[in-house]
Amino acid sequence: MACRVFLSKEPFDFRAVMLSHGWSSLAPFVLEKDYTSITFPLRSKNSAQVLTVSSYKNGVIAESPRALDAHSISSVEKIFGFNQKLKSFYTLAKKHRRPWIVKAKMGRLMTAQTVFEDLIKLILTTNCSWSFTKKMVQNLCTFAGEEVQGLFLFPTPDLLAKKKASFFSDHIRCGYRGPYISRISKMVASGDIDPEAWLSSKGSAKDLKKHLLSLPGVGPYVAENMMRFLGYYEGLATDSWVRGQLQSMWKLQQLPSDAKIRSEYEIFDPYQGLMLWCDVTQTWLQSEISTRATKV
Fold it and tell me: Which of 64, 96, 202, 261 has the fewest Cβ atoms within 10 angstroms?
């Protein structure tokens, strides 16, 4: 068994990353109930293996059957947000009376191994319940992914590009999203687009968003969430759940308009979307900590 330690140069909390949003509960990840470790298959350049990653000091420790190659190391750093620079965000949070963000080390977002996987998963969150999203993602892994030590990798664009329309309707059961996933997979497989290149893009946020919005099945919600994963935090990515949370937080009689939300968060530029997300998910981390304290 090989072990490798990853340490962050900035504040880092494993549990905060696991609870940053829902990715830790989606296949191919298997999260321990106490949020202390997570197991998943990881694809390297030439093979794949199952990793178990646990909290360790100001970072994580990864255990695997074989030593991690450079590609795998880069993937782990992406998944757990080690490439996300949040020093200025924490300074802004302190300035605007949000010390709980800094104390809980919130804001570092968990992602998938690849940008392609992030994009497809985001499309599968649209217009449905979270339980349905989980089922569709699990179906993708089970019916199209490679099996590694009893777990299934998220399928590659090449694999999905070869699937017929009936595969998405009969096996993945993803409804109108099927043609979008198929078309994007074919675009990636053919080289028409390269989602992994977005990580190192030198272009403007405006240009990247325009490019994302040109893709099948990508609207403002998916585009702005995708950009958040890529380190562009201006977009608010509001949906009905976020608006409902804000209505409750602000004690409003009706859902807030997008204009009002933009107005409230413009002072947090360029972190409007990330600050909004931390506001509406504040109770996630607090509730989990309180539950653990009660059980002790």
Answer: 202
